[in-house]
Design a protein that fits this description.
This is Periplasmic protein. With 107 residues, the chain is an alpha+beta fold. The chain folds into two domains: 38 residues; 65 residues, no CATH class. It contains four helices and three strands; from the N terminus they run αβββααα. A three-stranded antiparallel beta sheet has the order 1-2-3. A hairpin with a 2-residue loop joins strand 1 and strand 2.
């Protein structure tokens, strides 16, 4: 049993060393590969009455609340608000005005 424990510790440290190495390689290359996927996201801070309210992470297909402050604590747990963020808000956010301009030109 005394010999098994050091072997397990060395295996864990080798595994961690591999993670460190891969992270260092990615930091140097800054390119996606089989171990890393790069995704464009936006971090949005919403203030209400000059006080922090929500921190939102806008991804390609969804919006996540990263942090909610006292003033907006209830919103972060509201299912209807989550639905609004991931449907109506996200659709409006992703719309760059192209479809609106297209509809105006059709008129």
């Amino acid at each position: 049993m005394k010999k098994v424990f050091p072997i397990l510790i060395s295996l864990c440290s080798l595994s961690l060393a591999n993670v460190y190495e891969k992270l260092n390689d990615f930091a140097y290359e800054k390119k996606p590969n089989k171990d890393f996927k790069i995704q464009e996201v936006k971090l949005v801070q919403f203030l209400q009455d000059d006080k922090n309210c929500l921190e939102l992470l806008i991804e390609a297909g969804r919006v996540r609340i990263l942090k909610s402050y006292n003033e907006c604590q209830k919103l972060s747990k509201d299912a209807d608000f989550q639905k609004f963020l991931n449907e109506d808000f996200l659709r409006l956010y992703k719309n760059n005005g192209y479809s609106i301009n297209e509809n105006l030109q059709d008129l």
